[in-house]
Amino acid sequence: MPGNLSPDDLPLQRIYKWERERPDTIFLTQPYGGGKIRDWTWGQAVEEIRRMAHWLKAQGWEPGSRVAILSRNCAWWIMADLATWMAGHVAVPIFPSLKGQSIRRLVEHCEAKACFLGAIDEREAAEAAIPPAVETVRFPNAAAGEGSGWEALVEANPPIHGYPVRAAGDLATIIYTSGTTGTPKGVMHSFAALAYDARTLADLINLTGQERVLSYLPLAHIVERAGMQGTALYRGYRIFFSEGIETFLADLARARPTIFLSVPRLLLKFQQGVFAKIPEHRLERLLRIPILNRSVKKRVLRKLGLDTVVNAASGAAPLPPEILLWYRKLGLNLKEGYGMTETLITHLPAPGSFRAGYVGSAIPGVEAKLDEHQELLIRSPMNMLGYYKDLAGTRACFTEEGFFRTGDLARIEPDGQLRIIGRVKEQFKTSKGKYVMPAPIESQLMAHPVVDACCLMGAGLPRPFAVVLLADEARRGTARPDERANVEQTLLDLMNTVNTQLDPHEQLGFVAVARGPWTVGNGIVTPTLKIRRNVLESRYQPCVEEWMRQNRPVVWEAPPENGGAAAL
User: Fold this and answer.
1) How distant is the alpha carbon of residue 84 from its chain centre?
2) Rounded to an integer, what distance in angstroms lies between the CA atom of residue 356 and that of residue 341?
3) What SS3 class is residue 423?
């Protein structure tokens, strides 16, 4: 096995360990029904897993059949995943925010025999997308409909006895990429890869098994699946869940997490929420007063529900360093890590090695290097087995030496610290023949609280420009001409400040204010809250000529009925 991994490190063996050693320790906590709470001890959870595994095995499907999980995060999601493995099959998580057409494409592509269905974003469209031949099992939090119920199947089936295990090299899961650049790809990972990442991360950040975490990032994404679920199974710590946005703060307060995983867009929104209650300049002034500094920090973190957090991490996309340092100034031990669906989590700052703008060094067992074009290449025991049903795509993304081509431009410092510069495919050339990398410039713009999201464009133009989506407070303040003028002046000042830090060919020609929204529902944002550049470029390309003709530093997207784009 890779990296001295032992059979006892594999996921199924870990749950049997906790079943024996901690049968009465709470493992899962699920809110439901607008205020009710249900706990599962390790003994109770593994009992349900064994019963569901019995039902899955009784269907007579060939070993390694694919079983989809389509649901928001919940206790049943975790148990369904483990039951699928215990029954000898392959778990295929699907983002619960996808449209029906996308769901059907993934379910058919992986040839799923069954689908565990829970609470999802668009119930009717999603349910219609599940092919009739696919057996549906409804979690208790799913809407009423056809198919078997989880609780009824658990009640009707005896538990599997003994300790069924899977070989380290067996296919454990197919994780579909979020599709920022097109059709999602099915990434295949083995049990060994998942176990190696979980064990290494748990050892690196000194997890003890007494941790608490609120699971709210999609379990269909690698950050939550490997970073949270993997380490929770390995160390045996407690997982709390949320019913949704409406109950999130109450769920966070209940969990009092010691581990907090997030993504940049959510961290930006949390910061904006703080500034909505206490203006940034006032907060900064209070933090400079020695006698108040400590109590103010504690109060802000307590209001955010993060005052008990020991380890916090951001992933999935770059977090502006200014935002990262703002949280750390409050006392939150926030770091950035790095990983991809194809490689799992490969970089994380070790204790005491934090550096703003960097994602840490390669964790033990990971080899990282740059090719002649500065593209990051990674080789480790966690590299994917390949893309499902795509041998050509698999061959194309590996070097002859077995390094995975990440598609990220990067810098590796002499001490091994990694800095991500941007995506190879995202850079574009202006009409002056100079290349521009969007991500670092977008990061500088999004560090300002007035900007909720942005996308840099300008291929073939004399200068790049930014399309920005305003934060909620700023967006609400653009109804009156004077308020809109204030926002425009703020954006102008921001653009000028950012331009002073850029090379001449990178400097922005103007900023365009988008009407929005940019959401998962309208296809502009991926389920992991990353923007789809190709979609935004197609949407705003017809506006560019009009925006440039206006020759203004700040322009505004016009309402659809007006056509084109309109300035103030």
Assistant:
1) 23
2) 24
3) strand
Q: Residue 344 sits in a domain of what CATH number?
A: 3.40.50.12780
Q: Looking at 379, 407, 424, which one is the last position of a domain? A: 424
SS3 39: strand
Residues spanned by the domain of 452: 427-566
Tens digits of residue pLDDT in 287-298 = 888 887 788 888
Closest listed residue to residue 418, CA positions, set 347, 367, 352: 347
Please tell me whether residue 62 adopts helix, strand or coil conformation.
coil
Question: Is 7 in the same domain as 83?
Answer: yes
Reported residue count of the chain is: 568
| Alpha carbon distance 75, 535 (integer Å) | 35
Residue 65 · residue 113 · CB < 8 Å = yes
DSSP state of 87: T
Its sign, for the CA torsion 106, 107, 112, 118, is positive
- In order of 2, 198, 207, the CA distances from 191 in angstroms are 11, 11, 21
Give 502: exposed, middle or buried? Use CB within 10 Å, 0-12, 13-18, 19+: middle
**Cα(482)–Cα(488) distance, integer angstroms:** 10
Structure tokens at 127: 């349910």
Supply the CATH number for residue 546's domain: 3.30.300.30
CATH number for position 11 = 3.40.50.980
> How many H-runs (helices) and E-runs (strands) does the chain carry?
19, 29
* Closest listed residue to residue 430, CA positions, set 464, 454, 455: 464
Q: Is it the case that residue 560 has pLDDT exceeding 60? A: no
pLDDT band at 564 (very low <50, low <70, confident <90, very high): very low
- 434 located within any domain: yes
pLDDT digits (tens, 9 = 90+) for 61-104: 999 999 999 999 999 999 999 999 999 999 999 999 888 888 99
* Residue 379, token pair as written in the block: 């080789």
Whether residue 412 is found in the same domain as residue 432? no
Residue 385 shares a structural domain with residue 431: no
- Last residue of one domain, picked from the residues 389, 405, 424: 424
* Strand ranges inside 12-71, DSSP E: 26-32, 36-41, 66-70
Q: Within a domain: residue 288?
A: yes
Partners of residue 529 on adjacent β-strands: none
3-state SS assignment for residue 199: helix
Please state the domain count of the chain: 3
